[in-house]
Amino acid sequence: MLLEADPSLPPATQQHRTVRLLAHLVREQATGIVAMNEASQLALLASGDRLPLFVPRRPCTGLELQSQLLRAQLRAERSAHARTEALLKLASRLDRQGEGPQEVLRMVRQETGATVRIIDVDADEENPSDQEIPPHLLKLVASGQADSATDDTEGHLLLHALGGGYPRPVLAAESTVPWTPAQHAFVATAALHVSLLRQPLALRAQQQRLAETASAMREAALLALLRGTLAQARLSLKGLGLDLLDHPWMQFGVLRCPAGEDRVNLREECSRLLSRSALVAPCPAEPDDLLILRGLDSAEADTGTAQLLLPLVTARPGRMLGLSQPQPWERTAHVYNSAVNALSQTTPQRPFATDAGAPCISQQLPAWASLWAAGVLKSKLGSLAQEDRESLLEISYRALTIGTKQTAGLLNTQEQESDPLHRNTVSAQLTRLSGLLGLGSSRRDRALLHFLLDVASHAPQSAAIAGGPKNPTLSDVLATPEARSAAHQVIAPLETRQNTYLLKTLIVRATSDSVDEAADTLGITRRALQKRLTIIGTTIGRQMSGPPWGWLHEVILALVIAGHVSQDLLTDPSLPSAPASRHDPAA
């Protein structure tokens, strides 16, 4: 708005007119004031208003002036956001430390320049009064008829109720100038936290214990589902009031947050958007992830989850959502990998994605292929105690899929805090299993080991398996029409003329023992190789350049089956003469 003083008016009248106009502009969230002459400048400065004052220094166009005002508005919005964020962090710290609201009140005084105090109203007083506050306003808020109030004349006084008792204490904030809408909202937010911080410490401690119990139950339910122990998961979910397992299907989601974001508040908002009918818990494997599990009544591809969470995902840059296709609850651990794979397909322009749901190669093999995997595990691990064998297989399979660090975090529970599972222990177990099976630690051997365990996990329930050779070998399994068809589906997008360089890159990566060796062979930098792997992953719909590693392992097997990589590079652990191949660990 352009304001120009009228020289014909007496100074007192002009001053009064300016003050009233500025008060109105403040309430309407004006960006700033442009003074056109010296008289108006003096009037604006004398008014004591806090709107930005723009004084002409050189000729400018209307667009230039508008640009300056918009930049001022942006600075004001950023300042308001930073102020609110600082308030929330302060209140959260005071709550954790069991302190009162004094620091919050001090912050409100500093940020607004207002007089802020708490008025405790006497219940026996019929007409509560305060020397500086209109009695009818104080009674209105203290009696519960209104949660907040402001004076009708100048709008310099704000009242907010604290707590739910009767009569309610009142937070009074009084300023010498009109409140801006941003300040009004800031005081209202502060009043909510002051109310919570005034609660008795015993009550706050009880609420904290309940929150910690609920968090432990969510973690227990999540770990039970990932381990496939549905009976244990049902007990934990029942304690949380969730009936997820009453639905035959499930959908897994991974919500990745910007580094340092408070996952507690984000978890609560995510649960609210899903009508509190989903299990939402921080991922124990990745510090920036939230895991979301929804129960579904059908296997429909479009479950509406992305649409429900879209406002949350797009509210802040850096948030990304990966969703799996609907699957039975028994496959929860495998579906987690699908959700993480979908997460790798997101972009800043499209921060959510759903996995294509294509079955892995091991799922498409004939039933007799499981005889090969079962025979290998029985012959090589038969001397181990059952508990040791099962633990070794579970830890190794997860490490192959999502990485050693992530596996350690995923399998740790609060009960194990005295003796937590370390990533070095996970790595040692994986190395131990590889050694027992005559395999090394190259990425190719890791891919073969992962394939072996995958085939074993997909063994049919029936004891009688028809067809296939009597004593199948790895060559028999990879030569089946089902394996060739599945491998072609994986590699086909790269077998085009324009993607020849991508296929060559992938072959070199599969035949190299590390990322550095592959980059040297291709004559490119490590970073350039990682970029190519990302492009390959986008092209074939699988994560190639980082955890989960299961997709890279499957692609390596697909290259072997399709004939792009020699099968001689793989060691068949079912052959008695198979030597243990030792390589440096892949990067």
Description:
- With 587 residues, the protein is of the alpha+beta class.
- The chain has four domains: 2-59, no CATH class; 75-199, GAF domain (Beta-Lactamase); 210-356, 2-Layer Sandwich (Alpha-Beta Plaits), CATH 3.30.70; 363-569, no CATH class.
- Helices cover 51% and strands 9% of the residues.
- The chain is built from 22 helices and 13 strands.
- It has helices at 11-27, 38-47, 62-96, 102-112, 135-142, 181-197, 201-227, 230-239, 263-273, 305-314, 332-343, 369-381, 386-402, 404-411, 423-436, 443-457, 474-478, 481-491, 500-511, 515-522, 526-540, 550-561, and strands at 2-3, 33-35, 53-54, 115-119, 148-150, 157-161, 170-174, 249-256, 279-282, 289-296, 320-323, 327-328, 352-354.
- The strands form three sheets. Strands 8, 9, 10, 11, 12 and 13 form a six-stranded mixed β-sheet that branches.
- Helix 18 (481-491) packs across helix 22 and helix 19 crosses helix 21 (526-540).
